[in-house]
Specification:
Layout: E1 25-26, E2 28-33, H1 38-42, E3 49-51, E4 57-60, E5 63-66, E6 69-71, H2 81-93, E7 99-104, H3 111-115, H4 127-142, E8 146-158, E9 161-164, E10 191-194, E11 200-203, E12 208-210, H5 213-233, E13 242-254, E14 257-258, E15 265-266, E16 271-282, H6 307-320, H7 322-326, H8 337-341, E17 351-358, H9 365-378, E18 382-383, H10 391-413, H11 418-455, H12 479-570, H13 573-707, H14 723-773, H15 791-831, H16 841-914, H17 922-933
Helix pairs in contact: 2-4, 9-15, 10-11, 12-13, 13-14, 13-15, 13-16, 14-15, 14-16, 16-17
The structure holds adenosine-5'-diphosphate (ADP) and magnesium ion.
């Protein structure tokens, strides 16, 4: 499968053929602003770039940058990127124009996402998958007119080594021996070669012939996978590597021109061959890993600069500077593999688009500004794209056309002088022989093409071998509500008490009623009882008397009757009289008996009545018993109720006490939080002010530098400066240089501190916001701090956090942009070293002496400071000991207080139970409590 990429473009920037159309065109630059992503959101980042919705402009702070296109944020939607930036390049391929798409930006800015070389972000949205679709659509529409051949290669440049990502014969095993970064060699390495006519080719890289879109997609996938597996093993080396996916398109087009002589299509005219390449480049992360170091000004420690990107930047600077370009300044393509491979893409035979990917987060302000500047510089690069048609083919075609033209003129003239004809013939012969010569040459060239590449080994590459591979509360969660609740509870308490009093009152009334009724009944009963008994006795006596009387009367009557009978027997006059008397008496007795009988009947009636009243009395008695039972029950109930109320009251008091305690605690928390807010704001303000001052000073220094870059020798009145002024200006210059360095360090230090502070604030803000949304979780607050944040306090805290975040964000953006300026200056110093302008030995010696003196002074100062620090540390230790002691004491006091509180609550519980529920007086209660606690009101 492996082949030499011999089918490369056959013209170069160094020698563009004058016969072919060559247009000058600038590198197009588009900016893609991705949205804020997860990590940035959790850190509380704000957007620090603003995109104009009408013009393709990005603004950061006061810097406006104009580009060819701006996507994302308020700019055009990213979906238009392919159509506007890349589709014309794909079309150009079919006309023989090379093209390059470069994705530039810091790690995480979305390069891989934009290019579609990632494995996780889906392959549909990236530019490469869209290129594939467009390419095959176009081929389908024109394949009847010409023949096509497609190849792809996919390589990665990692630590200045070119790795083949499509080599399936060797497992991509950069980590075989467990050492990260070690490349395991198993095959001849990929080498960069340059033919004499300046064409760059890769020898040893797999070029896969492609017939379908699916095949191409699988190559992309395979390569991406290889890159990804390699990079996860190597601590994300992919951010340090450049990935280049190259599509080579070869076309064979039949040239069919009309022969004027015979008026027929001349099929013999041959074919036109054309070849073009499209490089799709996912560059390494543009950021420089900066570290401030733990102590001292170790400015450059750990700064990682990707050689390829550095060289690319220098190439862009060289090409982008019109003056330097016109002067024919050297373009350092050879400084890195990347720039060598992309030589044509930058300032050469290629149509090039750079996509600058940026993150809008303020935390990335510095890198974003760097990217924007870098990309803006790239816009100045002038490329010279040329259609890569086969030169000899074209040349021959031209000659044939000329021949045809001449023949036609010859025919037309017909009767011209034989001399003229002779001249013409000679011309024709000459042309034909030239034609033959060229054809032969063409043949030779074609046959030699394969071998050519082997021969054209680049001299510089010689000898270099490249490796390959790579509870109680009931919702009392807030203090405010605590207070409301405690008020409410006292309300509830009053209501309860009132209700209880009412209940007790009504029961008391009921009881009274019952007692009254009982009394009535009892008296009634008594009355009844006494009456009946005496009446009975009275009646019984009377009855007996009556009975006796009746009997005596009857006896008397009987006697009388017997007498009367006796008398009747005697029948004399006296007897007659006595009989009459007797009869009279008898009669009287009879009536007496009758009366008595009547009386007796009455008596029976009365007895009956008496029986009735006895029954009534019995009923009354049971009623009384019943009432008595009721009374007892009621009394019991009253007692029970009173007991319940007492218990309730006690629990209420306990609760109230608890609430009050919590209220105090919450109030304490609130005060603490307020103090924290104030303190944090002050610290932040102080920090941002410090940072602003450092940033301002840095800005001034940088601006002063800009206006007079190397202002050492002040030439006064055309005279060379006096020795003294010269030394003074030298000193001033060096001081300035050193101050810039120190300030950069200071600003960077504060920048990083600010980022930390901001992240902490953001974490708190998110957790507070979550609590607002899901209040049930509020009690599960970590570290137990601010457990009882009321909604109001929480809102206050959120507002204050937000304002702090705003301040922080502005400070970060300002610092980032100044750091970027400083960076740029360092970069320019890279091109023109700092000491370049020191011209005399005397100056150099003077400076050296000055540096020596300053260093000595600085060292002595450092020693003094160290001693100071030592002393301070000792003091601190003493203070710490003291603090520990106080803490121990404090703990003891707290313990004592707690036990006292416990005794108080126990005492309160017992006193409150002995209080009558009706007599409960909260004022006394608190008074007692206070006196027990030893608090004076
Ligand atoms: P880079 O290749 O520059 O290091 P990536 O392409 O890997 O960056 O992107 C970093 C993260 O940002 C990825 O998780 C990716 O999904 C996300 N991302 C990048 N660009 C976008 C975008 N336009 N929209 C949404 N997420 C994006
Ligand atoms: Mg990437």
């Amino acid at each position: 499968m492996e082949s030499h990429s011999s089918l490369s473009s056959s013209s170069s920037s160094s020698s563009p053929p004058s016969s072919l159309s060559s247009e000058s065109c600038c590198v197009k630059v588009a900016v893609n602003v991705r949205p804020l992503i997860g990590d940035e959101v959790t850190q509380g980042c704000r957007e620090c770039v603003s995109v104009s919705p009408v013009t393709p402009q990005v603004q950061m702070g006061t810097h406006p940058f104009t580009f060819d296109h701006v996507y994302g944020s308020n700019g055009s939607p990213s979906s238009l990127m392919f159509e506007e930036c890349v589709a014309p390049l794909v079309d150009g391929l079919f006309h023989g124009y090379n093209a390059t798409v470069l994705a530039y930006g810091q790690t995480g800015s979305g390069k891989t996402y934009t290019m579609g070389t990632g494995i996780k972000d889906g392959t549909k949205n990236g530019l490469i998958p869209q290129v594939m679709s467009a390419l095959f659509n176009k081929i389908d529409s024109v394949k009847h007119q010409m023949g096509f051949q497609l190849h792809v290669s996919f390589i990665e440049i990692l630590k200045e080594e070119v790795l083949d990502l499509l080599d399936s014969s060797v497992p991509f095993n950069r980590l075989a021996n467990g050492t990260p970064g070690k490349v395991v060699l198993s095959k001849s390495p990929v080498q960069i070669r340059e033919s004499p006519n300046g064409v760059i080719t890769l020898s040893g890289a797999t070029e896969v012939p492609i017939a379908t879109k699916e095949e191409m997609a699988s190559c992309l996938e395979q390569g991406s996978l290889t890159r990804a597996t390699g990079s996860t093993n190597m601590n994300n080396e992919s951010s340090r590597s450049h990935a280049i996916f190259t599509i080579t398109l070869e076309q064979m087009r039949k040239i069919s021109s009309i022969s004027v002589v015979k008026d027929t299509v001349d099929e013999d005219m041959g074919e036109e061959y054309c070849c073009a390449k499209l490089h799709l480049v996912d560059l390494a992360g543009s950021e420089r890993a900066k570290r401030t170091g733990s102590g001292g000004v170790r400015l450059k420690e750990g700064i990682h600069i990707n050689r390829g990107l550095l060289a690319l930047g220098n190439v862009i600077s060289a090409l982008g500077d019109e003056k330097r370009r016109k002067e024919g300044a050297h373009v350092p393509y050879r400084d890195s593999k990347l720039t060598r491979l992309l030589q044509d893409s930058l300032g050469g035979n290629s149509k090039t688009v750079m996509i600058a990917c940026i993150s809008p987060a303020d935390i990335n302000a510095e890198e974003t500004l760097n990217t924007l500047k870098y990309a803006n510089r790239a816009r100045n690069i002038q490329n010279k794209p040329v259609a890569n048609k086969d030169l000899i083919c074209s040349e021959m075609q031209k000659m044939r056309q000329e021949l045809q033209y001449l023949q036609a003129t010859l025919c037309a003239r017909g009767a011209t002088s034989s001399e003229e004809v002779q001249v013409m013939r000679e011309k024709i012969m000459k042309l034909e022989s030239a034609n033959e010569e060229l054809s032969r040459e063409l043949h030779i060239y074609r046959s030699k093409r394969v071998t050519l590449d082997y021969c054209n080994i680049d001299a510089q590459e010689d000898g270099v071998i490249f490796s390959k591979d790579d509870g109680l509360k009931r919702g009392f969660e807030s203090m405010d509500s605590d207070y409301e609740m405690s008020e409410a509870t006292s309300d509830i308490g009053a209501a309860e008490e009132w209700e209880h009093a009412l209940r007790q009152n009504s029961m008391g009334k009921e009881l009274n009623e019952l007692s009254k009724r009982l009394e009535e009944k009892e008296s009634e009963m008594r009355v009844c009882g006494i009456g009946t008994e005496t009446i009975r006795q009275h009646f019984e006596k009377k009855m007996m008397e009556l009975e006796k009387e009746k009997r005596t009367v009857q006896d008397e009557r009987d006697m009388l009757l017997a007498e009367v009978e006796e008398l009747a027997a005697s029948s004399d006059r006296q007897a007659q009289v006595a009989r009459d008397n007797h009869a009279h008496k008898l009669k009287a007795l009879e009536t007496q008996i009758l009366n008595l009988k009547k009386k007796q009947e009455n008596q029976v009636e009365v007895l009956k009545q008496k029986q009735k009243s006895e029954d009534a009395a019995k009923r009354l008695k049971t009623e009384i018993q019943c009432i008595k039972a009721q009374k007892v029950q009621l009394q019991q109930k009253m007692k029970q109720e009173a007991e319940q109320f007492r218990q309730w009251k006690a629990s209420q008091e306990k609760e109230l006490l608890q609430l009050k305690k919590e209220g105090r605690k919450t109030e304490h928390e609130r005060l603490k939080l307020e103090a924290l807010n104030r303190r944090q704001k002050m610290v932040l303000q102080r920090k941002t002010e410090e940072a602003a001052m450092a940033t301002k000073r840095l800005k001034e220094l940088l601006e002063a530098r800009k206006s007079s870059p190397h202002d050492i020798s002040v030439i006064a009145n055309g005279q060379p400066p006096s020795r003294q002024t010269n030394e003074k200006s030298l000193r001033k210059w060096l001081d300035n240089e050193l101050e810039v360095m120190a300030k950069v360090h200071q600003v960077r230090f504060q920048y990083e501190k600010q980022i930390q502070v901001r992240a902490a604030l953001a974490v708190e803000l998110t957790s507070l916001r979550q609590e607002m949304e899901f209040p049930s979780n509020s009690h599960q607050e970590k570290n137990g701090q601010f457990r009882f944040l009321s909604p109001n306090t929480r809102l206050e805290r959120i507002a204050s956090l937000e304002s702090m975040l705003d301040v922080s964000s502005n400070a970060l953006t300002a610092m980032g942009s100044q750091l970027s300026e400083a960076e740029e200056r360092e970069h320019s110093l890279h091109a023109k070293p700092r000491w370049n302008h020191i011209q005399s030995m005397t100056d150099a010696k003077y400076l050296l002496q000055y540096v020596f003196d300053s260093t000595a002074e600085a060292r002595s100062k450092i020693w003094e400071k160290d001693r100071d620090i030592k002393e301070k540390k000792e003091q601190l230790n003493d203070l710490l000991c003291l603090l520990q002691l106080t803490e121990v004491q404090n703990r003891e006091i707290l313990k004592e207080k707690k036990t006292r509180e416990q005794t108080v609550s126990i005492a309160l519980a017992s006193t409150s139970s002995s209080y009558s529920v009706f007599k409960f007086n909260p004022y006394f209660h608190t008074k007692i409590q206070n006196s027990l606690l030893g608090i004076s009101p």
